[in-house]
Amino acid sequence: MTPEDGRLILSAIIGIALSITLIIRGRLHPFVGLLCGAFTVGLLAGLPMEETAKAVEKGAGTILGGTGLVVALGLGLGAMLQLSDGAGGLARAALRLSGIRGAPWASLCTAIVIGLPLFFETGLVLLLPIVASAAAALPHGQDDDTAKLRLMLPALSGLSVVHALVPPHPGPLLAVNALGANLGLTLLYGLIVGIPTAIIAGPLLARFTAPGVKLSPPLLEPVKADVPPPSVGRALTAVLLPVVLIAAGQAVAMLPPTVAVHFHWLGWVSDPVVALLVAVLVALPLLFGRRITDRTIQNAIWTEAMTPAGGILLAIGAGGALKQVLVTAGLSDMLVRLADGGAISPILLAWGVSVCIRLATGSATVATITTAGVMQGLVAASGVEPEWMVLAIGAGSLFFSHVNDPGFWLVKSYLGTDMPGTFRTWSIMETVVAVVGLLFVLVASSIF
Fold first, then answer.
1. In its keyword annotation, does this UniProt entry include Transport (predicted)?
2. Is the previous residue joined to 168 through a cis bond, with omega within 30 degrees of 0?
């Protein structure tokens, strides 16, 4: 390691530490804190101010240009499922079918299905009050805090796994684009790795972490519109449609050329933006029927969707800016040299960098964006399949959620746990997802 490498690492540490201080101590929005950290890294690493500013603009612009529409359309679909009570209907149906003994598994499966097109925060707000109500309705002797947590924690596990590992969520999708991974294979591998990871971190782990944790009443109920709830079939169609379109487009490449020529249109329909737009247009009549022309319904959908969009987009953009400054300063090249020396596996290195940025910034999406950006050169140089690098980064981005993660406070509020209880349940669960996910990635990457 050269003195310049040491200066770059020190610059990155100081810049990220400044971001943490501004966000936690200074109570600044992550957008402002991350931008300050990005400029600090550039200046301490020896980049001229003009070059640092250009890197910030390039990083934020590239990320928002490719992700803004995905975020907006995903939030819109989530708002439709929330306002129509479509997601709630799916959850209640699954819990009714499962019975008491299978309720934690039904909670996990429902979260994985519902979480496919939804942001983590949207799925959380939709599912936890429903699952808590189902737990409260359990037969006498089962309605206690442990029983509630054994239903709610699997739902959180399912939502976390699909958020970090399965496109078309913005984090995995951005990593796919940055590393040149195959979207269809990443989706498939993400499910292969994610489902057993969610089982271990959800229903199985909850048996040990839930007992003894006390709950207070839930904070809020999800907002609903005054419309008849859709059938389970219609809600399920709206949830799965974007995933099916993306997967179908990738499957066309596997067909014989004489057959594939008749399905070339699936190539552009499977683009994540187009797939989500089609899903939104189809979901409107499926979930709201003739009320789709009602101005109050349309206003409610996009007001509900856009309320969180600003903060999400700003944080993602600032994460892209920090990533680009680190790349411009030479961190990516330094990591390539480190991996070329055989000191550490590229998959482990990607996971470790993602863990560090997650702990520092509190954002899984920012950790994924930043790590994927600085790992581009390493993927090309190491020969590791980029799909596994995407999943390793996604797993690391969940490691130990704590007080600088907005999701920590949201989960605390909706679970009704105190601080120690939130660390014992949520923070440990996220750490298990990160570690077990990495282990499955290492095993699966050696098999496939």
1. yes
2. yes
